[in-house]
Amino acid sequence: MADTYIQACFVFSCTAAEWSLLQEAFTLSLDLCAELTPEPRSAAFMALFPASGSDPWAGFSALFGGSSLPDFGCDLAGGAEMEGTRWQAIISAETSFEPDAVAQLIQRCCNETLAQGPIGFEWSVSCSRQRIDEFGGGWCAVFADRIVLRWTRDQLRSAMAEASS
Questions:
Q1: pLDDT tens across 52-70, in order?
Q2: Helix 16-33, helix 99-109: angle, nearest 10
Q3: Cα angle 6, 26, 116; round to 5
Q4: Domain boundaries defined on the chain
């Protein structure tokens, strides 16, 4: 038996309002994963992640591609920058980072910041044992209008296919 780890650690600057939305999302994720009844969310949060029918968290759960466990696989930390008008958001993961869900969260919550430029991050995949194809990683660039997410394995295969054609 072997354990596979998807790890990441990155920081980006965002507005205080965006920071609040990110915090609400991470708190909601923890509550739902622990099967706790979440406290009501702000109107701004609910506008970004609208309810559907009888499910108040349907818009939020959609970030996780139909998974019954709305877990980002990472932690959010940070604080105000020196001038106090921007916040540093630090996202870190040791074992089960979910790059797609985190990218979608950033895109929805950080509109003002993304209007100024993209936010990018990388992640790594490793294994507790030496196993073929259990190592790699990827990168993601989050733009206001799109998300570009690539796994190194796919890029390697593509480069090798181009070389042999």
A1: 989 999 999 999 987 888 9
A2: 140
A3: 85
A4: 4-164
